[in-house]
C-alpha cells in the first residue's frame, strides 16, 4: 500500500463502526446489500415471490452514518424511504464459502438502514438501469455499533422493528428472511471474494415508506439495542 505521505491529495478517512463494550472500532472495507429478502416486502414492492437467487448491490463505504446522527434530506428525490436491516460484519474473508462454514466468518452483528431514493430506484428499474442513484448516495447507510458474536451469539431470529416519530412502521422477525445469513454469505462469496471489514445488510421486512425533514427513526433488533437517526431539512 502506498505511503500516505506520497499522496497528491489528503487520503479519505477510514470508515469505521464502534464495537459495543470496547474502545475499539471495526474498519469497513465494503458494504454489500441484499434486496427482496422478506416475502411480505417482495409482495409490497410488486415482485415475484419465488426463491430466486438473492439480489446483491453495494453502497459506498463513506455512506455510513453513525448512531445518533442527523442526516439531511437528500437532493433529487421527493420519496425518501427507510429500510431497516440486520447488519453482518465479516472478520475472515474467502471465496466460495460453504453454508456450513459461513458463521465462522462473522465478527458480529448490528442494525442498519438502507435509505433509498425510492422514486429514482423505481424509475431506473423500469428502464433496466442500475440502482446506484437510488441506493448508493451520500449518508444512505446509518449503522449502529457492532455487537461481537462473543457477546450476543449468532443472530437468526428475533424482533426487527422500526418506528418513525414513535409510530411503528416495520414489525417483523428475522426468522422470516427468505435467505438466511449463512446462505447470504455463501451466495455472495460466489460473486465476490469477501474480506475482513466487509459488512452485509441482509434485507428489509415489509412496511417501508417515506420520511420527511424532522422525522426521527428508531430501529431495534433483539439483542442488538437500537439505532436512532433524525432527518434534517
TrEMBL record:
GO MF term set: acetylpyruvate hydrolase activity; fumarylpyruvate hydrolase activity; metal ion binding
Keyword NADP recorded: no
Pfam families in the record: FAA_hydrolase
EC numbers, comma separated: 3.7.1.20
Record bears the keyword Methyltransferase: no
Top EC category: hydrolase
Domain Fumarylacetoacetase-like C-terminal: 31-231
Superkingdom of source: Bacteria
Keywords carried by this UniProt record: Hydrolase, Metal-binding, Pyruvate
PANTHER family found in the cross-reference section: ACYLPYRUVASE, FLUTATHIONE S-TRANSFERASE
Name recorded for this polypeptide: Fumarylpyruvate hydrolase
Lineage start: Bacteria, Pseudomonadati, Pseudomonadota, Alphaproteobacteria, Hyphomicrobiales
Amino acid at each position: 500500500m502506498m505511503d500516505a505521505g506520497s499522496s497528491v491529495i489528503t487520503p479519505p478517512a477510514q470508515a469505521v463502526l464502534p464495537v459495543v463494550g470496547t474502545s475499539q472500532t471495526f474498519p469497513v472495507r465494503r458494504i454489500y446489500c441484499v434486496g427482496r429478502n422478506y416475502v411480505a416486502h417482495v409482495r409490497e414492492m410488486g415482485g415475484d415471490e419465488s426463491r430466486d437467487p438473492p439480489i446483491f448491490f453495494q453502497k459506498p463505504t463513506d455512506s455510513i452514518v453513525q448512531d445518533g446522527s442527523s442526516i439531511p434530506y437528500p437532493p433529487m428525490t421527493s420519496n425518501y424511504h427507510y429500510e431497516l436491516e440486520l447488519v453482518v460484519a465479516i472478520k475472515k474473508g474467502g471465496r466460495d464459502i460453504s453454508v456450513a462454514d459461513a458463521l465462522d466468518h462473522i465478527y458480529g452483528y448490528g442494525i442498519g438502514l438502507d435509505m433509498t431514493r425510492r422514486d429514482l430506484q423505481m424509475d431506473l428499474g423500469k428502464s433496466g438501469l442500475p440502482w446506484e442513484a437510488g441506493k448508493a448516495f451520500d449518508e444512505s447507510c446509518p449503522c449502529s455499533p457492532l455487537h461481537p458474536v462473543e457477546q450476543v451469539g449468532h443472530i437468526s431470529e428475533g424482533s426487527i422493528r422500526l418506528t418513525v416519530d414513535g409510530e411503528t412502521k416495520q414489525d417483523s422477525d428475522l426468522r422470516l428472511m427468505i435467505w438466511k445469513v449463512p446462505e447470504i454469505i455463501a451466495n455472495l462469496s460466489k460473486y465476490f471474494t469477501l474480506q475482513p471489514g466487509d459488512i452485509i445488510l441482509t434485507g428489509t421486512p415489509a412496511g417501508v415508506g417515506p420520511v420527511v425533514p424532522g422525522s426521527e427513526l428508531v430501529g431495534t433488533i433483539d439483542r442488538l439495542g437500537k439505532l436512532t437517526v433524525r432527518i434534517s431539512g
